[in-house]
Design a protein that fits this description.
The chain is of the alpha/beta class. It has 4 domains: 62 residues, DNA Methylphosphotriester Repair Domain; 106 residues, Orthogonal Bundle (Arc Repressor Mutant, subunit A), CATH 1.10.10; 71 residues, Methylated DNA-protein cysteine methyltransferase domain (Double Stranded RNA Binding Domain); 91 residues, Winged helix-like DNA-binding domain superfamily/Winged helix DNA-binding domain (Arc Repressor Mutant, subunit A, Orthogonal Bundle). It has 15 helices and 10 strands. A 4-stranded mixed sheet has the order 3-1-2-4.
Length: 361
């Protein structure tokens, strides 16, 4: 009897593609190695002549095959296990009253410091130190609003010494802790309104960097939006020199792939900053789903929170929340209008195509 050509089975194409969505639907075994794997196994692709497909792990084992140690077909996937370790490390840092060292975190998840550092950054887009700092920053902001004293707030946020806190406070808060405690009442933001092909644009900056890039149909709602975001700050209209900075921002909006070389004053919670970091790693001309971003930051169940972080973004285009779409590829809500989102994606796609054609020439 002529053996079955496995390549005619549509499941084989999913093995070739290492399709993670096929995991749990079927398994495959390799006669020459005596092992069976999940479809997404990263091992070298086997010769299809030696492959059999199975509907369950029990069927594969009954046929005499043993489980692959690399993809662990009978348990959770390596990726899921890694995400669980990263999530555990995040919980440890969130709950710690004192900063944890890289060695302490790596030991807690039973990995080497070097491998843990690489795994954590790959999963979240942040180093463990940056994640811990962002978490302490969020706790500090909350604490300054409710604690009896500044000292009580910084101890509650996990800063072990006054010097460590004051060294870090300007970068964390964008101002002194006492100033922040008053609600930024004396903070000054310089702003200017211009026009681009997407409509009106408002750019505002603190002493730290560009704090807001807002898009809309009319300038007045943009100014009200800025006032709502920074209710106690003093807003000062920009001069001619500042208009040159605005021109740079408009240039970035017109050609998003060029990026923005100006410093940014990014203000958000630890979770929001993880999302925004992941957004900035989406290549020009590409898109990602909300669920893919949630997976990337190690929080696969936080799809709605990812959407919320995108909506809270104050830096249009510079933090490219327009590159995030629904899982089916369709466009969803965009703070500055779905049509602007569609146009930005189209511009980036055209820019990517021109670049690829130039490289091929």
């Amino acid at each position: 009897m002529k053996p079955l050509d496995i390549t005619t089975d549509p499941r084989w194409a999913r093995v070739v593609a290492r399709d993670k969505t096929a995991d749990g639907a079927f398994w495959y075994s390799v006669a020459t190695t005596g092992i069976y794997c999940r479809p997404s196994c990263p091992s070298r692709l086997a010769n299809p002549k030696n492959v059999r497909l199975h509907s369950s792990t029990g069927e594969a084992e009954a046929a005499g095959f043993r489980a692959c140690r690399r993809c662990n077909p009978g348990g959770i996937s390596i990726e899921a296990a890694n995400n669980a370790m990263v999530a555990k490390a995040c919980r440890l840092m969130d709950e710690a009253t004192e900063p944890l060292s890289l060695a302490q975190l790596a030991e807690a998840v039973e990995l080497s410091p070097h491998y843990f550092h690489r795994l954590f950054k790959q999963a979240t887009g942040l180093t463990p130190k940056a994640y811990a700092t962002a978490g302490r920053s969020a706790r500090l902001r909350d604490g300054l609003a409710t604690a009896a004293t500044v000292t009580e707030a910084f101890h509650g946020a996990g800063f072990g010494s006054n010097s460590r806190f004051y060294d870090a406070s300007a970068g964390i808060l964008g101002m002194s802790p006492t100033h922040y405690r008053s609600g930024g009442e004396h903070e000054t933001l310089t702003f200017a309104v211009g026009q681009c092909t997407l409509g009106a644009i408002l750019v505002a900056s603190s002493t730290k960097g560009v704090a807001a890039i807002l898009l809309g149909d009319d300038p007045d709602p943009l100014l009200r939006d800025l006032q709502d975001r920074f209710p106690k700050a003093s807003l000062v209209g920009g001069n001619t020199a500042y208009e040159r900075l605005v021109a740079q921002v408009i240039g970035m909006v017109e050609a998003p792939g060029r990026g923005l070389s100006l410093p940014l004053d990014v203000r958000g919670t630890a979770f929001q900053q993880r999302v925004w970091m992941a957004l900035r790693e989406i290549p020009t001309g590409a898109t990602a789903s909300y669920s893919a971003i949630a997976e990337k930051i190690g929080s696969p169940r936080s799809v709605r929170a990812v959407a919320g972080a995108c909506a809270a973004n104050s830096l249009a285009v510079a933090i490219p929340c327009h590159r995030v779409v629904r899982h089916d590829g369709n466009l969803s809500g965009y703070r500055w209008g779905v049509e602007r989102k569609r146009e930005l994606i189209a511009r980036e796609s055209a820019e990517r195509d021109r670049r690829e054609q130039g490289e091929a020439a």
